[in-house]
Design brief:
One of its GO terms (molecular function) is nucleic acid binding. Keywords: Metal-binding, Zinc, Zinc-finger. InterPro entries: Znf_CCHC, Znf_CCHC_sf. Helix 1 packs parallel to helix 3, helix 4 packs antiparallel against helix 5 and helix 6 packs parallel to helix 8. The chain contains nine helices and no strands. Among the domains are: 39 residues, no CATH class; 94 residues, no CATH class. It is an all-alpha fold. It starts with a helix and ends in a 5-residue tail after the last helix. Helices cover 68% and strands 0% of the residues.
């Protein structure tokens, strides 16, 4: 009975070990290839990648923070939210980003069509340049652009509808029959015969 339990435990260990190894890339496998038990593998991976005091984890988070771009997000709120989460994670592992550095990092993640806005923010007095001010200005500018974009879309939609209606009117007019001359394509009031004979019925 004891042997069966031990064998069952070994089988489970082997399956767990295999699952962990299959999930690892070549870079991770080289760190754990000398280990034989899933618990040892897991602890080694945690030591390398997960601990709160790990310099590697700080490096990974900072690299991600510096590489974030507005274009990869649905909007400004999403972009700023991701930056905030990364800063929170860095804080939780014992690293701290200076307020001014974070403000500059956020501005660096904006595309070129934001250069005028970025220039305006960078020219703020030193006492006003802070992360909160940068976020507030960027959110306001994003809202303004969305509003303007919506106005243009509505104008384009209205123009498109008008063209469609005009086209339908012209199509319908081509099927008309003039009661004056019997020809198609115009109303009696527009008939050339009426112009030649104003007194005619």
């Amino acid at each position: 009975m004891l042997y069966r339990k031990l064998r069952l435990h070994e089988c489970r260990q082997e399956k767990a070990f295999a699952k962990i190894c299959l999930a690892l890339g070549n870079e991770q496998q080289q760190h754990v290839q000398h280990l034989n038990f899933p618990k040892d593998v897991w602890e080694e991976l945690q030591r390398l990648y997960a601990p709160k005091d790990s310099r590697l984890r700080v490096l990974q988070l900072r690299r991600q923070l510096y590489s974030e771009k507005l274009e990869t997000h649905e909007g400004m709120d999403s972009y700023l939210g991701k930056m905030n989460r990364l800063v929170s994670e860095l804080t939780s592992v014992g690293d701290r980003i200076d307020d001014g550095d974070l403000a500059m990092t956020i501005l660096c993640g904006l595309p070129e069509d934001w250069d005028i806005v970025v220039s305006s923010i960078c020219n703020l007095p030193e006492s006003e340049f802070c992360c909160a001010t940068v976020k507030r200005r960027l959110i306001a500018e994003w809202a303004r652009r969305i509003e303007n974009s919506g106005g243009r879309s509505e104008a384009m939609t209205a123009t498109t509808i008008e063209k469609k209606l005009t086209g339908r009117a012209q199509l319908s007019k081509s099927k008309l029959v003039c009661f004056k001359c019997g020809k198609m394509g115009h109303f009696a009031r527009d008939c050339s015969l009426r112009a030649k004979n104003p007194g005619g019925a």
